[in-house]
Amino acid sequence: MHAIIEFHNVSKCYNSTPALSDINLTINKGDFVFLTGPSGAGKTTLLKLIFLSERPTEGEIIVNGVNITRMKSSAIPHFRRKLGVVFQDFKLLPGKTVFENVALGLEIIGLNRKLIKRRVWQVVKWVGLLQKIDSYPPYLSGGEQQRVAIARAIINNPMLLLADEPTGNLDPGLALEIMKLFKAINTRGTTIVIATHNRDMAETFSHNIVALSHGRLLEHSHLSAS
Ligand SMILES: Nc1ncnc2c1ncn2[C@@H]1O[C@H](COP(=O)(O)OP(=O)(O)OP(=O)(O)O)[C@@H](O)[C@H]1O
Ligand SMILES: [Mg+2]
Asked: In the chain, what are the domains?
């Protein structure tokens, strides 16, 4: 079985207005996919359906072989442990240090202190922020904060990493650095889905592009390498 995400005739309405209409989509394990489309196209909605922060109005969604469409709310936290998420606005806790922000995902699963410390240091070092490990997010640059958010998202070795406009608030140089990190994470086996309205960036970094417009799937192209 190669598919990690399957959408079967999925629609999502907000107050009877469709945000996504009849989406059929398969994303395979190990893919590096960009979800593109203009503002309001439904990119964030599609990610929310995978993360189960929204439920589809119609259709079925399968993630890693499990039909999550009607998953009980009580099962969602366990399901989310296999996912990593990165948001445009980082969503870091300002009153906690870099170490503490990244450690949260391991504390939740009850790992012991020593293992948490070792793993957090390893990942924070990997994103290049060891010198800031005791800093608080408000004292970090945008690119540094985004690297903390990425460290937090990958701390549990997720099978799937979802990112919503992860470079939307960064200058082009920093955006490039962040995209290289995502590439490296993908090379280690994690499937990655990144929502962005920046089609040029999508085409620069992947050949696997899903384009939405007004809630409909316009294309899913596997552009050949040039
Ligand atoms: N919670 C909500 N309640 C009502 N309507 C919503 C809600 N969330 C999204 N929508 C609507 O659904 C449509 C798709 O929104 P979505 O956020 O998925 O778009 P997007 O492609 O992520 O856009 P952007 O590039 O601006 O982030 C929009 O018309 C939006 O107004
Ligand atoms: Mg969005």
From this structure: 31-55+71-222 (3.40.50.300)
